[in-house]
Amino acid sequence: MPMRDVLAGLSVAGLMVPEAVAYAGIAGLAPGRALIAGIAGGLAYTAFGRSRFAIVSPTSSSAVILAAALSTLSATADMRDAMATAMTLAVGVMFAGLAAFRLGSLAGFISRPVLRGFALGLAVTIIIKQLPRLAGVPAPSGPIAFVVLALVREMADWHWGSIALGIAALAALLAVRRVRAIPGAFVVIVAGIALSSFVDLHRLGIALAGPASLVSPHIALPYGFDTWTRIAQLAAPITLIIFAESWGTVRDLALRHGDSLSPNRELGAIGIANCAAALFQGMPIGAGFSGCSANEAAGARSRWAAISASLCVLALALMAGGLIARIPEPVLAAVVISALTHALSPAPLLRLFRLGRDQWIGLAAALGVLGLGVLDGMLVAIALSIAELLYRLSHPSVSELGRVDGGHDFIDVARHGNAARIPGVAIFRPNAPLFFANAETSLRAINNAARERAEPVLVLSLEESNDLDSTAVEALCEFARLLQSESRRLILARAHDRVRDVLVAAGREDLARGSTFSVADAAALALRDL
Asked: Phi-psi region for residue 28, left (φ > 0), alpha (ψ -120 to 50) or beta?
C-alpha cells in the first residue's frame, strides 16, 4: 500500500467520521449506521469500482431524502430501522438493475458544463449547510436561501465560542493543506478530541458529536408486497440523487485527471456497495462530493486511499467510539468546509465564458443546485442542455462552398476569400445532420439561396448526415422533385452508404446512384453534363 495513499486515507477518515455522525443525524438514525455503511460499502466499491478518488459513504443529499421517506413509512423506532435497511437494499438493487440493462449511457446526458456547474453549486450548498453547526445554532432544513435567512435571523443566538473554535480549526486545516505528508483532517480531529478531554466544552455551550458505536450486523427487513412496493417508490428518488451526485463527482474528477471510467461498471459497483451496506444495517451511500474532493486534495493515487480510509474508520469505531463522541461540532463543520474550499473556484465556468460555448448551461446548473436543490437543479440543467442541443440542431446554419485554388478542397465562401464559386454549379452544405426537426427548414433555406444564383445544377453536400429519418427522406425527395420541375438538377455529394440505402428504399434509386463520395466529384459530374 503506497504511503501517500495511506496518508490520504487517514486524512479522509478524519472527514468520514464527522460526516457520518452528521448525516445519520439528518436521517434520524444512529451514527453507527452511517459508519458501518461507509466501511462496508466503501470496501465493496473498491473491489468493483474503478475511480481512484471515490469515497463511497453516506451523503447529505441522500440523507435528507431518506429522512423524508422514512417519515412517511413508520413512526416506531424499530420499524424505522427496518425500513432504512430495506430502502438501502432497494437502492442497491436499482443500481444493479441499471448496470445490468447497461443504462449507464444515460450519464452521457450530463454534459461537462453541467458537471462543472453542479460541482460548484454542490460545494456552496454543503458549505452553507455547515454554517449553523459552526455558529452553534440549530440547523434548519430546506433550500439554501431558507438556511441563510434562518441563520441571519438567529444571529443573536450565535455562540461565539463555537465560532472561534470552528474558525481556528478551519485556519489550521488550510494551513497544513500545503504539506500533503500531514493528514490535516485527522490531526485537527485528534486536537479537537484532546481539547474536549481537558476542557468541559459542553459546559461552555459548545456542542459535541455524541456516541457513534457500530451497529450489530443483524438484518431486519419488513415484509409484505404492498410495503416493498412503497419502499421501491421511495427508493427511486434516492437512487436518482445518488446517481446524479456520484457520477457527476467521479466523472468530473476523472476528466480533470485524464482517467477513464465506465458508467455501467460504476453503477454496478455503487449497487453492490449499497447491498453491502444493507447487509450490515447501514444507510444509502454514494460517491459524495466532499469525500471525493477531500481524497483528491489529500493526494490519492489509487483505490488504496479509499481502502485505508475505510479501515481507519473501522478502527476508530471499534476502539475509539468514546473519543469520537468528544469531537466538537464546530470542528466537524470546519473539516467539511475545508474539504470543499478548493471546489469553490469559478475558473471552470469562466473558461466556458471565454470559449463562448455552454456558459449559460454551466451557470444554470450551479444556480439550479443552489436554488432548487441537488436533484432538481441537476435535472433542470440537463433539460436545458438537451433543449439547447435540439435548438441548435433544428436551426442549423447553411454554407455555400467554393473551390480552393482550383484543387480538390471545397470550403465556405463566406469565411474564406480564396474559395471560388464554380459557374453553373451552386454547392451548399447544411452544417448539421438532417432530421425531422430541421430537414424542411434547411432545404428551404438552401433553395432560396440557390435561386439567387440561378445555376442549373445544385450540389447538396450531406457530409454531416450519416443517416436520414423518414421525414428527412421525404423532404429530400420533395426537394429533388421541386428542382426537377424548375429544370434544375440535384446531385448529392458526400452521401453515406446508409443514406444511399434509405433513398433506394424510398424509390429514389436515381438520387442514390447519381450521388458521389466527394464534393469535387459532384462538381466534376455537374460540369461534365452542362
From this structure: left
Q: Which of 447, 463, 454, 396 is nearest to 421 (CA)?
A: 454
Whether residue 249 lies inside any domain: the answer is: yes
Picking from 284, 236, 261, the residue whose alpha carbon sits closest to that of residue 110 is 261
List the one residue out of 88, 79, 97 whose CA is nearest residue 58.
88
40-66 pLDDT per residue, tens: 999 999 999 999 999 999 987 788 778
Of all helices (H) and strands (E), which one includes residue 418?
none
Give the separation between CA 360 and CA 271, rounded to whole angstroms: 33
pTM for the model: 0.68
Measured from the Cβ of residue 203, the count of other Cβ atoms closer than 10 Å reads 7
CA angle 331, 214, 35 (to 5 degrees): 50
Q: Is residue 162 classed as helix, strand or coil in its secondary structure?
A: helix
Residues 407, 313, single domain; the answer is no
Host domain of residue 174: 3-344
Q: Is 428 in contact with 449 (CB distance < 8 Å)?
A: yes
Q: Is 360 left (phi over 0), alpha (psi -120 to 50) or beta?
A: alpha
User: Which phi-psi region, left, alpha or beta, contains residue 108 (left: φ > 0; alpha: ψ -120 to 50)?
Assistant: alpha
Residue 149 lies in a domain: yes
Is the per-residue pLDDT at 75 higher than 60?
A: no
How far is it, in rounded angstroms, from Cα 468 to Cα 100?
A: 31
Residues 122, 261, single domain; the answer is yes
Q: Of 321, 344, 367, which closes a domain?
A: 344
Query: What is the spatial distance between Cα 56 and Cα 37, in angstroms, rounded to a whole number?
Result: 9
CB 508 within 8 Å of CB 489: no
Identity at 318, one-letter amino acid code: L
Residues 217-259 pLDDT 10s: 566 677 777 888 888 888 887 887 788 778 888 988 898 888 9
Structurally, how many domains does the chain consist of? 2
Phi and psi, residue 97, nearest 5°: -65, -40
Residues 106 and 247 sit within 8 Å (Cβ to Cβ): no
- 158 and 48: one domain? yes
Identify each DSSP E strand in 258-345 by its residue range: 286-287
pLDDT (average), residues 324-336: 82
- Which three cell numbers, joined as nine digits, stand for 159? 455562540
Got the DSSP string for 115-132? HHHHHHHHHHHHHHHHHH
Q: Which helix (H) or strand (E) holds 400?
A: strand 398-404
Same domain, yes or no: 231 and 300: yes
| Same domain for 305 and 158 | yes
Q: Coil, helix or strand for 495?
A: coil
DSSP 203: T
3-state secondary structure 448-485: HHHHHHCCCEEEEECCCCCCCCHHHHHHHHHHHHHHHH
Say which CATH number the domain at 443 has. Answer: 3.30.750.24
